[in-house]
Amino acid sequence: MRLLRGPEKGEICSLRIVDGKVILTSNSSGLCQPEHSGNSASFILSDLESKHTDTYTCNLRIFSPAPYKDYNVNETYLYVHETTCGPEYISWMLIGLAAVSFFSCICFICCTVASCLRNKTDKCVSNSTEYNSEYMPMAAVNMVRKPGQKL
């Protein structure tokens, strides 16, 4: 069993059974891992990138008993999405997160200082008034004089 890639049918990896022994081969650098269990064979593709988008074909070759047979078992078009979260995006996300954290800390400090100042002002105002008095403190008012009126 072979896994072929593209219209040129380049072999990526294969699985051969010779005299009951399983021989696994992989031509790509860690891209394909063939597996065999009982009567089934699997090709596991890993670490794929957008450049690996192509048509993949499972091909079965039978050499013994004669005559030689060659079957294309399955053909699948595999589309690999580009990852948008590469190392350059992660660094920008970290810079943005640091800026938001810095802004949040500045806002927190400003709110804390404003709250402390408000509490100090409220304490000064509350000390100047008498709570036992029945009268409210009032400001002095200038009377408006009418012409010809004496005080």
Oligomer: single chain
Secondary-structure element order, N to C: EEEEEEEH
Largest sheet: 5 strands, antiparallel
Kindly state the number of beta strands: 7
Helix content range = 25-40%
Whole-angstrom Rg: 42 Å
Low-confidence stretches: none
The strand order across the widest sheet is 3-2-1-6-7
Separation, N- and C-terminal Cα atoms? 120 Å
**Shape summary:** rod-shaped
Strand content: 25-35%
Category by helix and strand content: alpha+beta
Give the integer mean of the pLDDT values.
78
Number of distinct helices: 1
Number of domains: 2
Transmembrane segments: 89-117
Main location: membrane
Pfam families: V-set_2
Keywords: Cell membrane, Disulfide bond, Glycoprotein, Immunoglobulin domain, Membrane, Signal, Transmembrane, Transmembrane helix
Word description of this protein:
The protein is built from one helix and seven strands; from the N terminus they run βββββββα. By secondary structure, it is of the alpha+beta class. It folds into two domains: 2-78, no CATH class; 84-123. The chain has a five-stranded antiparallel sheet with strand order 3-2-1-6-7, with no helix packed on it. A hairpin with a 2-residue loop joins β4 (32-37) and β5. It is rod-shaped. The mean pLDDT is 78.
